[in-house]
Structure formats: C-alpha cells, structure tokens
C-alpha cells in the first residue's frame, strides 16, 4: 500500500539546515527577552472553542481549525438538525475544541485563569505555532510561529520604552536594518474628535497613508467621496501636511488637536516615550507615523510597527498597548502592552540579505572516517575524548566506500574529517582534513583535541 | 460576557517556573544529541489522515484528533449518508487532516518525501508535542512532548551503541540513576522457533516477566493453560531459569536456541553491543532482559527500555531497531534504530527526587527598585550597562510601594535588588541587597557590574 506521502497545504517540514537558521532567530529573540526580565510560558495547541470564538471577528471564526469530538460524535445530534445540512450549526454540536489562532487570546485566558498565581506586572514571552485556515500563498502559511512579548498589569510608559529597546537589540543582533514606526491611538481619536468625525479614524489614516502615492488633492477628494464634511477636511489639512522631526510633528499635531483631552494625552504619551529614548543609545530610527492603524479595534495607546529597510516586505514586528485584553474573560481594567515578532518574515529577510552567520557551530564539527573494525577501535576512544570536551563529533557507522563517507561529511557541512589507517595507528596519529580548505595535517590525540577545542 | 476560562481536559499550561525546568530537560537532551552528530527537524502538527490512519491499529485510529474540513464541509456529503448517522463513515467525508499521534510516522513520511535531499545515514532528532484522545489520568495527557532520536539508513550496530551512550550521558547530566534493559527481537523469535511455538512470543515474554512474582511452577501452569505444548514448556525451562551475568545468560540462551539461525543472529548482535560497551566508560548498568517486548510488531532487532532506579514509575525512555519503517510509504528496506525520551516522566522523576538545579540563572538576576522619575533616571544607564554585559536585569516599571516591589522580586526568584535613593545618588552609589541572605552592601557602578558578572 505504497502511498505518495505529502503534507497538508500551507504547512511545512523544516530540514536540519532550516532548523539551524530558525533556531538562530528564536534563540536571539529569547536571549534578548530574558535580558529584559521576561519569562516564557506555553499554552496548549487546543483551546476550547468557547475561548476562541467571537474573538477574531466573523472572518476569524471561519479561519479557526476545529477539532472533531471523539467517539460517536453524531449520536447526540438530532435528525432534523442533521437533515438541515447547515455546516456552521452542526459544527457547534460536533466540535468543542479548536487550534489556537494567535497567542494573544490564549495569553488573556491564561492570565485570568492563573491570576492568583501570577505576580503582576507579569512580563511574559511565548514562542509557539498558531494555525489559521487561510488560503495559503507565498509567505502565508496555515501553521506558523509567533513570538509574543507582553507586560500586563502596568500602565507605565517605561514598558513601551523597553519594548522599543528589545526591538532595537534583537535587530541589532540579527544585523537587520529596521525603522520602528510609532503611533498612538489616542492621537488618532483626538484627530477624529477635533474634526467632528469620530467614526472616521480608519478613513483618515488610509487617506494619510495614500498621500505619498496620490497627492494631497486626490486624498481630499477621496475623503469627500467617503462622506467626510468639507469643514472636517479643512481642519485636517495641517495633519495631512505634517513634516519635520518627530518633535516638530508633535507640535503641529498639538496645534490642531490640543482642544481634545484624549488627543493631548496621546501627545503626552508619545513625548514621554521620545524623552526616554533620547537618553538611550538606540541604533534604530524611531519615527512617528500617524498612518499606523493596525489593531485599531484593540489598541488603546501606543501602536508599533517595524519594517526592514533593505527588503520590500510587510512589517516584521508589531504591537501596541491594550487596556482591556482580559475583560472578555471576566477580569476588567488590566492594562498591557506587547509586541509580536514575525519569525517567518524575519527568516525571509535574512535569507534575502544573506545574513545568517556562516560559522555557527550547531552541526557536527568532526567526523571520523570508518575504515573497518581495527581502525574503528582506534578511533572510538578519541571520539569519546572529543565529546567529553564538548566537541560535536561522530564516526561514520560502517566501513562504507571512502567516497560515500566524504560525500556524507560534505553534504552535512562537517568542518573536519579525521582519518586513521594502518600508518597513523602505528605512529599514534590522526590525519585531520579541513573540509573547506582541503588542507591535511597529522596530529597526536593531544594536538587533535587542542585544534578542535580552540 | 464573562466566561470562566479553562482549557481542554488532558492539556496543560506551563508557567514560567515549569518552563525553566522543562527547558532544562530539553536543553540537556538536545545538547547530547548534537554532541553525537544528530540534527533536528520539525514536521507540521497536522498530517493528512491518509498518512496517519491504519498506522497505530484500530484503537489508535480512534485516538487520533481529527480536524474538521474548512468551509461548508457538509455540502458534498449526500443525504442518505448523513441520515445513516455513522460517525466513523462521516468522519472520512468531513475530515482530511489529523494531529500527529507520535513522531515516528511523521518521520517515516518525512524520510520518504525528502529522500532525494537527505544524505544517509540520516541522524535526526525531533522534539515536538503529540496529541492523543486518550482518557486523561495521572501522568497521562492528551498533549505531551516526545523527544525522538533515530539513525536511518545504516544497519551498523555502532548506532545501537551510540544510542546507549546517549542514554548514559543524558541521565548522567540529569543526575538520574537508571538501568538500561536490552533485548533483541531475533532472540525472542529464536526461542519461539526452537520450541515450535512461533506465534507465542508475547505469551512467552509475559510468562518470563511473571517469574519473580508467581514462581516457576505457576508460570509453567499458565503457559499450559494458554495452549503451549508440554514439549515446548520443557524446552523453555533453561530460558526461564536464566541467571548470572549478561555473558552467562547469553551462553545459556545459545545452548537452547543455537539451532535457530535467527536466534544465533540475535545473540551475535547482543554480544557485539556488549563488546563495544566494554571498551566504553559507561556509568549506566546495561542488563539483558528477555521480558522486554515493547513494540514487538514493529521492532526487528535491538529493543531498549530505561527505568529510573530510585522512583516507582514506568519506563522513561525506550526504543529499538526497525527494518521497514518507511515501507508503508513506498520506500522499502531502509533499516533504522531509534529511541524516545519521555520528557513528562523524566520531569516527574526529577521533581520527586528534587533534582532540578537551584542555581540555574534563567530568570532575572537583578531588579532595580523604582523610587520615582529622578531615581529611575539615575538607574537606567546602569541597567543598560548590565544588560550590555549579558546580565538579565529589569527595573520595576513604576514607583509602586516598596513592599509591592520587593514582593515582586521575591516571587519571581530574583537574586539581587538594587536601590538608589537620594543618598546613593549624591554619592554615585547603589545599595545591593542579596535576596537570599538579606545582606546589603553599597557599590559604585564598576563594582556593581563586577559583582553581577563574576
């Protein structure tokens, strides 16, 4: 019963080479998270559908992977229900669990469920796969990893500043040039309030975003078409013409929306963050960008987005402050702020720019060629010594043809190959071949150990 | 809409404290795997049901978590089919994917699917969760991690030896006393062949296993009841009375089953393994144990099982050699050997024996108390210096009450707390409090850095 094996579309296998690169990204991110006092948690792949449904909008509900109840799941479904052939209705009766769609909702659930064990402010990170029944396409998968870092239970803006520092440090270590764009939901609300179009936040940010492409005149025309009043459009002009440094922009915005309490609060928050950043030695450019409108139904303060400067790709990291994440689970008024690193896109950026370090020793460093039982016996104690010294090493498990063994070492990217035939054994030596240069040299065991551990 | 949040039964959240301990186990295992030249791969959580079904027996098929097809999954089901209310039949029509049940079948699928990219022998490890719709009970979960390590594409017994070395090294590093039990499927076949009861392998191993508990007489009686012939039982006596060292046992077995070619081959294999082990400096006791019958429908040579000596618990690691893992996917005659570490049981053993190291610095090492804007400003550059030196450090994000801040540091297990009030700032100093001893000392920034990095 030979089957042609394959995996579900939108999912991926990761080869050893890919794993080394992916782990390089994850390890870098984790190290920085820990440096800033964040601790990891993990939640189950499956959550109750009652936890997940209704949290991602109607479209999101459809994109949840739902798990069929075990056993005779149809026995409790009544016949008329079944005859109706309504997939959505039937789903509620034959499925109680789903795969997590993101790490945010499970985190909110975790915080509420474990609130008596958690010491707040809770600085947690979480790196796990999520699943979405999205249409797969280039760069979009049905199983992908999220790397989330959040502080919950503190409304200090120092948290925002530390997240910006984390972004700076992660991309400095990964060697990716980025720009961090910063916005504040309260400023957007202040603008909408000031021009008397409170429900138009999205239209306005879309308009600002199009400025570069279509010009001021067309943007104004579009706003009019969308029903924004002439008066409001007139008031909006200074915002659309915003220019200069972050500080200058903030001053211009203040002149327009200074009358709105919410708007002023937003400006204060952004100023405080910039003041902190001034004292820090940040390599990353931080830019106030009013077009940033991600997660608007969700974020209540700062909004972050990180873009790679040298590659055309969407944002590679993003996040913001939310004031009521846990409210849906019965714990209101807990403020938090967090960001999420997009591991897959970061991987793509690093591949395109060839940024993965070549000298990362996460694979075997030395392989002994296997010439037969006698030679094997001579090599095994040396192999044990090398491993005891922490050198990743192996011996080819059988006396296969030399070409096959060298090919194996080559394909696996092994740096050195050690050979010991009759002559070497007689002299108590090993011939060490550098697989990159092709150079060979003879060593005794002490020298071999030294060469490979230095 | 406050919901009381919970997670599906049989699944778990892992808190920061649990994550540190779990990662200690996983990191130890991974390090040893890499030391022996193994490389990691990962496969998707979801596999096509055609890959999974029929691989774990009828019972296993029932224990697979199946994923409901997306969209209007009922539209293609015909009405009469639906009216039949046969859950199993319907499942085939509304579900095409399932969660992986173990790492072995996905690995076999991986090897066949990627056979042109893989260089054999392929030494891979894989550490990922698996899911089973088993009835949850103490120590048995519906989501749990497996840590598998396999060599595929080589029938050299050196591979078996290296897996035994890996077991030895992992448990030496984790500080768990274990005994490794070794059996060989070919010896069991040889016994069954010799006594003329080829289909009775399981009955015979069960009988041998009961010897200690019920005695020789009752074991013989039970074998008779099960239909094993008097003649066969008589031939079996020397096997039942096996005693002495591993070598002595092998000699006794040889006298009984030496006439069976398969049996002799099994004895040779075990002898070869013991001869290798004699040359190695192994801390772990390796014991020939004919009662080991795990995965009999599957393993074709060596069978391994590892038990903790100081705790009453099932096997914590196990595996063996299989000659046709990839045959089901159309790639016959590829021999492999592998073992799987049971991370959850290892965790339980280490918890019971209190073996987790106390001094593992995977959490924050230093927290600055936050007394307000001025003090914060004084502390932030020092905090940056410490982090630049690789010290996991944080500052409490707001000027909360002293008691709250100290309580936070305490609960989080932070080793040191640094304080700088008016006096310290005037003198350019920090007061460092050791949270374990309660001792306090004043340092300038150079001394503080030295103290925390030594």
Question: Would you write up a description of this structure?
Answer:
Chains A, B: One of its GO terms (molecular function) is ATP binding. Chains A, B: InterPro entries: aa-tRNA-synth_II, aa-tRNA-synth_II/BPL/LPL, Anticodon-bd, Anticodon-bd_dom_sf, His-tRNA-ligase, HisRS-like_core, HisRS/HisZ, HisRS_anticodon. Chains A, B: Its EC number is 6.1.1.21. Chains A, B: It is an enzyme of class 6 (ligase). Chains A, B: L-histidine binds at residues 102-104, 132, 146, 150, 294, 298-299. 2 copies of one chain form a homodimer. With 454 residues, chain A is α+β, with helices and mostly antiparallel strands. Chain A folds into 3 domains: 11-173 and 317-351, Bira Bifunctional Protein, Domain 2 (BirA Bifunctional Protein, domain 2, 2-Layer Sandwich); 178-309, Bira Bifunctional Protein, Domain 2 (BirA Bifunctional Protein, domain 2, 2-Layer Sandwich), CATH 3.30.930; 366-453, Rossmann fold (3-Layer(aba) Sandwich). Chain A is 44% helix and 18% strand. Chain A has 17 helices and 16 strands. The first copy, chain A, has helices spanning 16-35, 49-52, 57-63, 79-83, 87-94, 104-113, 158-174, 185-194, 201-225, 230-240, 246-257, 261-278, 343-352, 373-388, 402-411, 422-427, 445-453; strands spanning 39-40, 46-48, 66-68, 95-99, 122-131, 143-152, 178-184, 285-288, 302-308, 317-322, 336-341, 366-368, 393-395, 416-419, 430-434, 440-443. In chain A, strands 1-5-6-11-10-9-7-8 form an 8-stranded mixed β-sheet. In chain A, helix 1 (16-35) runs antiparallel to helix 7, helix 9 packs across helix 10 (230-240) and helix 11 packs antiparallel against helix 12 (261-278). The longest helix of chain A is centred in the middle third of the chain and has 25 residues, at 201-225. Chain A is globular and about 95 Å long. The two termini of chain A are 52 Å apart. At the A-B interface, helix 1, strand 1, strand 2, strand 3 and helix 4 of A face helix 1, strand 1, strand 2, strand 3 and helix 4 of B.
């Amino acid at each position: 019963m030979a089957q042609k094996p394959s995996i579900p579309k939108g999912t991926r296998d990761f080869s050893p080479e890919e794993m080394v690169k992916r782990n390089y990204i994850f390890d870098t991110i984790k190290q920085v998270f820990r440096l800033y006092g964040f601790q990891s948690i993990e939640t189950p792949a499956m959550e109750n559908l009652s936890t997940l449904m209704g949290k991602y909008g109607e479209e999101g509900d459809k994109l949840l992977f739902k798990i069929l109840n075990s056993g005779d799941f149809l026995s409790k479904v009544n016949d008329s229900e079944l005859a109706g052939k309504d997939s959505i209705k039937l789903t509620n009766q034959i499925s109680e669990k789903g795969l997590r769609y993101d790490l945010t909702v499970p985190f909110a659930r975790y915080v509420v469920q474990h609130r008596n064990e958690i010491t707040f402010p809770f600085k947690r990170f979480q790196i796990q796969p999520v699943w979405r029944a999205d249409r797969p396409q280039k760069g979009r998968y049905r199983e992908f990893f999220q790397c989330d870092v959040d502080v919950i239970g503190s409304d200090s803006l120092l948290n925002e500043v530390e997240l910006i520092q984390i972004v700076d440090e992660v991309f400095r270590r990964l060697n990716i040039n980025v720009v961090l764009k910063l916005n504040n939901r309260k400023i957007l609300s202040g603008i909408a309030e000031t021009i008397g179009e409170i429900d138009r936040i999205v239209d306005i940010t879309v308009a600002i975003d199009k400025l570069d492409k279509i010009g001021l005149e067309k943007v104004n025309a579009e706003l009019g078409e969308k029903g924004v009043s002439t008066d409001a459009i007139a008031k909006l002009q200074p915002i659309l013409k915003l220019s200069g440094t972050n500080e200058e922009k903030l001053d211009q915005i203040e002149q327009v929306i200074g009358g709105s309490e919410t708007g002023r609060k937003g400006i204060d928050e952004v100023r405080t963050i910039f003041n902190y950043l001034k004292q820090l030695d940040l390599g990353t450019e931080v830019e106030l960008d009013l077009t940033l409108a991600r997660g608007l139904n969700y974020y209540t303060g700062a909004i972050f987005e990180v873009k790679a400067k040298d590659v055309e790709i969407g944002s590679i990291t993003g996040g913001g402050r939310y004031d009521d994440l846990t409210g849906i689970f019965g714990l209101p008024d807990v403020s938090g702020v967090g960001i999420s690193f997009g591991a897959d896109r970061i991987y793509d950026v690093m591949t395109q720019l060839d940024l993965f370090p070549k000298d990362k020793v996460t694979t075997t460093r030395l392989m002994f060629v296997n010439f037969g039982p006698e030679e094997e016996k001579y090599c095994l104690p040396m192999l044990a010594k090398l491993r005891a010294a922490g050198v990743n090493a192996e011996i080819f498990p059988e006396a296969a043809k030399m070409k096959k063994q060298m090919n194996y070492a080559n394909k696996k990217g092994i740096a050195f190959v050690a050979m010991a035939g009759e002559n070497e054994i007689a002299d108590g030596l090993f011939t060490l071949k550098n697989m990159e240069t092709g150079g060979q040299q003879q060593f005794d065991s002490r020298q071999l150990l030294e060469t490979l551990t230095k």
